Each structure stands twice: as structure tokens, then as C-alpha cells.
């Protein structure tokens, strides 16, 4: 598959809620990266964002409940690559997130996941699906990534 | 998956880490290794991250926790051989202002003698 058909790419994988699947999603992203293709210099950062989102879904969303599900969708639309990660949790307001770079937070071991996602994707937002699941939607503009690559 | 090696050099305890440090993959091992060194009374700990190819926020958090735990034990934890990606992560999160880190092993060893 070449870039001219990348709009055909749409993947959905649903797994039981467990951290062991973070590696699986990372591997799938590596395969998807070749199909799209994703810019190599951004791949690790996109993978990091995906891992952070899946870990949050398992730990904070589904609260380590193995009977719940995590679903990851990957899709290309136009020049935008999107990853959505859904859990069955109550969700949260992004407004409550504090900046981990503030002096009072710098020595805290937690609280950097969403911050890193926002740093390494071009857009990240939270959503509630029609069936009530909570999700994060992260996207990367492939054209701007290409421009960036050309500039370097 | 993370591999590790612990050795002493010039009176410094070196923790050499390789691979990925992520939630459920190396994070607890790293914590236990540093805790073990501190419990042995080691005061100068150097974490060699040259072989670390991937680290998530949990790995970063464990490094921060190790740094503060070391301080509580009157020990000093420093970093050496950061890859560009790990350096970028530390810079973006401003943890580069927290850690003392060195490009070369010799520089790191010398820093303990000052």
C-alpha cells in the first residue's frame, strides 16, 4: 500500500483492559507506520502518546478492571493520522490537570502522561462516545510533519 | 523489555540500563535496583541511560522518585549517556533542571570528586 491509498487505513482493536496489551498496540503502530507512512522521526513520540493513552485507559479509566475493555482505533483521513483510545470509565475534566513543569509538581512521580501526549501530537482532545465510553482522540498532521522533516 | 548491569567504578555505583523503561516493563526493576543500592549504603549512584531506547512517563516518574529517595538517603543520583530522545524528554518536562547529567562517563565520575 502506498501513500496514495492511505485513506483506506482504518483499524480497530479491542482488548480486555490490561497493561500487557500496551506492547501489542505499540507493535501494531509500528506496522501501521509503514503503511501510512508515519514520519520516522515522530514515530517514537506517537508510540509514546499511544502508550500513555492506553495506560491511562487501563489504570485510571477502567481502574484495573480486567472485565472492562479498551479499544484503540487508528485511522487516516486526508493528511491526518488519528488514534482514539476508548475506555469504560467515568472520564475526567482536562481542566483538572496540572502542569507537571510547575515547581510544585516537578518532583512528583506522576502526572506527565497527558502532558506528553499534548506535546507529541498535533491535537489531543477528550470525548464521550454515543455508547457512553470515554476516550482520547489524538491526531498528527502528516503534511506538516513532512514540512518539518524537509526543514530539518 | 529492560536489561541491566550494576557495577562499581572509581567508588561509584553504576546502574547501566538498556532497552525500554515503561509501565510494567522495567519501571519496578529500576526502582528496586536503586533502592537496593541505597539500602547497601551506596552514596554515589550513576545511572547510565545510553542503552535506553524508549521511556514513558512512568519511567520518567521512577527516575524522579529515585532521585528524591537518594536525596533522603543523603546519596547523589546522577545520569550519564542520555540519548537524544531521553534528553528531549527531560527537556520538555523540565526535568533537565532537576537532574545532574553528563555526556561522558569520565565527566560524570569527575563530578563526584569535586
What does this molecule look like?
The complex is a heterodimer of chains A (152) and B (114). Chain A is of the alpha+beta class. Chain A has a single domain, classed as Heat Shock Protein 90. Helix content of chain A is 36%, strand content 25%. Chain A has helices at 21-35, 40-61, 113-120, 142-151, and strands at 10-16, 69-77, 80-87, 123-128, 134-141. Chain A has a five-stranded antiparallel sheet with strand order 1-2-3-5-4. In chain A, a hairpin with a 2-residue loop joins strand 2 (69-77) and strand 3 (80-87). The two termini of chain A are 27 Å apart. By secondary structure, chain B is an alpha/beta fold. Chain B has a single domain (2-109), classed as Transcription Regulator spoIIAA (2-Layer Sandwich), CATH 3.30.750. Helices cover 41% and strands 32% of the residues of chain B. Chain B has four helices and five strands, in the order E-E-H-E-H-E-H-E-H. Chain B has helices at 27-39, 57-72, 84-92, 105-113, and strands at 2-9, 12-21, 44-55, 76-80, 101-102. The model of chain B has no long low-confidence stretch (mean pLDDT 93). Classes of the chains: A alpha+beta (152), B alpha/beta (114).
Amino acid at each position: 500500500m502506498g501513500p496514495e491509498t492511505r485513506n483506506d487505513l482504518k483499524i480497530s482493536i479491542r482488548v480486555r483492559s490490561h497493561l500487557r496489551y500496551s506492547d501489542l498496540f505499540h507493535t501494531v503502530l509500528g506496522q501501521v507506520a509503514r503503511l501510512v507512512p508515519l514520519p520516522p522521526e515522530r514515530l517514537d513520540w506517537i508510540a509514546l502518546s499511544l502508550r500513555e493513552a492506553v495506560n491511562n485507559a487501563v489504570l485510571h479509566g477502567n481502574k484495573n478492571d480486567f472485565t472492562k475493555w479498551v479499544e484503540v482505533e487508528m485511522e487516516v483521513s486526508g493528511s491526518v493520522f488519528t488514534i482514539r483510545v476508548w475506555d469504560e470509565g467515568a472520564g475526567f475534566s482536562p481542566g483538572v490537570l496540572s502542569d507537571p513543569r510547575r515547581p510544585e509538581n516537578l518532583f512528583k512521580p506522576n502526572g506527565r502522561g497527558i502532558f506528553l501526549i499534548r506535546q507529541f501530537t498535533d491535537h489531543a482532545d477528550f470525548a464521550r462516545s454515543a455508547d457512553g465510553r470515554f476516550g482520547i482522540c489524538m491526531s498528527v498532521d502528516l503534511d506538516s510533519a513532512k514540512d518539518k522533516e524537509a526543514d530539518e | 523489555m529492560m536489561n541491566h548491569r550494576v557495577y562499581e567504578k572509581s567508588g561509584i555505583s553504576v546502574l547501566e540500563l538498556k532497552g525500554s523503561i515503561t509501565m510494567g516493563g522495567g519501571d519496578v526493576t529500576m526502582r528496586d535496583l536503586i533502592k537496593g543500592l541505597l539500602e547497601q549504603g551506596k552514596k554515589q549512584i550513576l545511572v547510565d541511560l545510553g542503552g535506553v531506547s524508549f521511556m514513558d512517563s512512568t519511567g520518567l516518574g521512577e527516575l524522579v522518585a529515585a532521585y528524591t529517595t537518594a536525596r533522603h538517603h543523603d546519596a547523589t543520583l546522577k545520569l550519564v549517556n542520555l540519548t537524544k530522545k531521553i534528553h528531549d524528554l527531560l527537556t520538555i518536562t523540565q526535568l533537565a533542571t532537576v537532574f545532574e547529567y553528563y555526556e561522558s562517563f569520565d565527566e560524570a565520575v569527575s563530578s563526584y570528586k569535586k
